[in-house]
């Protein structure tokens, strides 16, 4: 008999249910006597002992359902070693519940922060297998995360919709795309939907270059410009600041986000009419795209097989279209960022996309 606990943690995405379904299906196929429990609302459920039993019927019909059937929450890694408001030792509590529920392993679906805690639990002696979730595609050790392509579809569709109205009015539009630390989503959505200017955290922008690119389009007789701007886009000057100074500057910013600040600067210096569109959490919502359903099903199936073989302490990732186990200690705490010298950036530049550098 095997008892496995499923847990989804951090920001949700479209393909969490599809992935859990994949793991469950493989477990029901490969392990003779299997019991699955769903730990509720991420690590919070593991700390405070909240779970529900799940059976084959719970995993039926959820391949195309967004969100997560077991809930999620953000539990910052940096607070894991700090007691909660009642003095409870969170790590001790998680270990106690793991033992009390007689679990053979935890299946944890999450992004960067989630992986740091998963690795901590591994170091504490728990059997852990993780699956790479995030619309940001910034997890180290895997070429692709599930959720990313679904979010690319939504962000691209948002930019597509803007094209006709931008052209009709001859306006400059900024579409703000999710991603505070990395720009994969903005980069892919920007290329996919023909954005003229793409600003991402990895390539700090010079506002003069951005304005020059808009003016160049005007000179060519193009009456509109579309910018895809990541939430974490940063100017060359701000990129020089220390972490503390950056935090303060963001806190004191008089605009709701960086896109509004960039918009105000462009308006002031060019006289162009600017509009900002923020698709926000729509990028994480709704049904997973077929690509995500496929990789989620593959990753899930492989995780089920690893559990059957008792291979723990790994993230199940994708390398060169093959599903591979990656040691958790190699993943935790590392970000996969866009390399400004990579070929995708060079190709985008050859298409005339301006990165403001
Ligand atoms: O990590 C996923 C993500 O959607 C980021 O792209 C975004 O910056 C952040 O989460 C938003 O977080 P929250 O849902 O907590 O507002």
What does this structure look like?
Helix 5 crosses helix 6. By secondary structure, the protein is α/β, with parallel strands linked by helices. It is built from 13 helices and eleven strands. 41% of the residues lie in helices and 17% in strands.
Jot down its keywords.
357 residues; alpha/beta; 13 helices
Please describe the topology of this protein.
Elements (H helix, E strand, L loop, with lengths): L1 E7 L7 H15 L3 E6 L3 H6 L2 E4 L35 H11 L4 E6 L1 H12 L4 E5 L15 H22 L2 E6 L6 H9 L4 E3 L7 H13 L5 E6 L5 H4 L3 H10 L5 H13 L3 E4 L12 H19 L5 E6 L2 E6 H4 L11 H8 L7
Parallel strand pairs: 1-2, 1-4, 4-5, 5-10, 6-8, 6-9, 7-8
Antiparallel strand pairs: 2-3, 10-11
Helix pairs in contact: 1-11, 5-6, 7-10
Overall shape: it is elongated
Task: Return Rg in Å.
Answer: 22 Å
Average pLDDT confidence is: 97
Portion in beta strands: 15-25%
Oligomeric state as shown? single chain
Low-pLDDT runs: none
What portion of residues is helical? 40-55%
Q: What summary fits the major beta sheet?
A: 7 strands, mixed
Characterize this entry briefly:
The protein is α/β, with parallel strands linked by helices and about 350 residues long.
């Amino acid at each position: 008999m095997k008892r496995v606990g499923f847990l989804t943690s951090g920001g949700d995405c479209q393909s969490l249910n599809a992935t859990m379904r994949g793991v469950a299906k493989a477990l029901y196929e490969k392990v003779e006597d299997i019991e699955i429990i769903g730990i509720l609302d991420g690590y919070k459920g593991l700390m405070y002992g909240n779970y529900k039993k799940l059976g084959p019927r719970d995993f039926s019909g959820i391949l195309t359902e967004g969100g997560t059937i077991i809930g999620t929450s953000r539990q910052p890694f940096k607070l894991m070693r700090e007691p909660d408001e009642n003095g409870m030792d969170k790590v001790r509590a998680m270990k106690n519940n793991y033992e009390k529920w007689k679990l053979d392993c935890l299946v944890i679906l999450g992004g960067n922060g989630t992986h740091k805690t998963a690795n901590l639990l591994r170091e504490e002696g728990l059997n852990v297998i993780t699956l790479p979730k995030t619309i940001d595609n910034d997890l180290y050790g895997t070429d692709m995360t599930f959720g990313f392509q679904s979010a690319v579809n939504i962000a691209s569709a948002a930019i597509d919709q803007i094209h006709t109205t931008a052209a009709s009015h001859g306006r400059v539009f900024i579409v703000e795309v999710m991603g505070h630390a990395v720009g994969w989503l903005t980069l892919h959505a920007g290329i996919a939907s023909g954005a003229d200017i793409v600003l991402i955290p990895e390539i700090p922008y010079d506002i003069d270059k951005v304005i020059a690119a808009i003016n160049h389009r005007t000179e060519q007789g193009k009456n509109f410009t579309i910018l895809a701007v990541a939430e974490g886009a940063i100017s060359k000057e701000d990129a020089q600041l220390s972490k503390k100074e950056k935090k303060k500057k963001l806190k004191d910013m008089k605009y709701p986000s960086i896109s509004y600040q960039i918009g105000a600067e462009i308006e002031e210096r060019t006289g162009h009419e600017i509009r900002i569109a923020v698709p926000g959490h729509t990028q994480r919502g709704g049904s997973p795209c077929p690509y995500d359903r496929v990789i989620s099903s593959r990753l899930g199936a492989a995780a089920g097989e690893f559990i059957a073989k008792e291979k723990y302490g790994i993230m199940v990732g994708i390398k060169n279209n093959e599903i591979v186990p990656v040691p958790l200690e190699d993943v935790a705490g590392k970000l996969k960022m866009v390399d400004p010298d990579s070929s995708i950036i060079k190709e985008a530049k050859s298409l005339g996309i301006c990165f403001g550098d």
